[in-house]
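INTERNAL AUDIT FORM
Audit reference: QA-55
Scope: verify that the stored structure record matches its stored sequence.
Auditor: D.O.
Record contents follow.
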Amino acid sequence: MNHLQALLGVILFMTTPAGAAEYPKAFLSNGQVWIQTAASEPPLQATHDADGSFKSDPVVSPSGKLIMYGLRESQGSGRLAPLSIVFIDSSAKEIRRFREVPTQKLGGVCGYGHVEWIGDARIGVRCEYNPSGEDYLVLNAVSGKVEKEFTGLYFSWSPDYETLAHIGWIIHFATPASQNYCVLFNDKPVYTPGCSNEVRPTTAQKKPSQPLQSKRGVANGGSIPAAQKLPDHYENIHEISYPLVWSKDGRNLAFVEMIYDFDWGLDEKGEETREFGNQRSFLAIISTERVAVGYPLTGPVGNAEIEWLSDSRLRLRNSDKSVDRVFDLVADPPKPIP
């Protein structure tokens, strides 16, 4: 085996989807799709598209019969066509192609997107929209018909493909009061129940006797000094980190989150004031069968890696391995998150 084949073997091992047949395997290299049909066979270049096109990572169907990838073809001058979905077999023969993916909730058609198999009969398309939300579409794998559509982030299917967990869309570039994360199962809020991305203040706002001055100047163009506004106090804002990870039996979902309070007001000069407090971090475990529980953490965990070792044990690590803990739900049961 030469150096290239050895390197490709590592890539293939890392990108083979769970539940898929061991071979064929598919991967991207230099912007093209490659296929390897057996350990004893060298990889085959399956596509030869012109430079400038975009492809998502190819994925093999659970049966191993088809390989699927997203494609945005170059239209010249840096322009790309809308996302199409291409299906090929292990010999690189094109079987079918969906020319576009309509997005009813966000309007128009999908631009940049990533694809995955939901069993052999359906596919999922995650259409990138902006940092605040993505459109996730469930398509019939043969007809391309859109069967379901969801909006949010961090989409994660349960092992039986019956429940799609995700967080609702978030208003980025706003105050934390409009960035409260909610977890939904099939579009139904489950954490916290009835959750909204906006948190209402728990203290009343003081009405100023003079026009308020912001960082951009005095309100209404006047020069009257602004009155001080008492801070609005927002409690228990949830910030959930990617990924959302299902237990092997599909009964529990784990993730890392931080909960904090936020005060937002204006000082005597009319300048905006922000203060964060009461910050708590948890490894959270939620289910439709009971209230949310979790384990307190000493602080935020960046780039969290969560692995269920069994249905009652899970491991939490981060990318630099400064955090590496195993939690046992039986020996040390998690407690309700305050």
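Auditor finding: record pair retrieved intact. The chain is about 5% helix and 45% strand.
Action required: none
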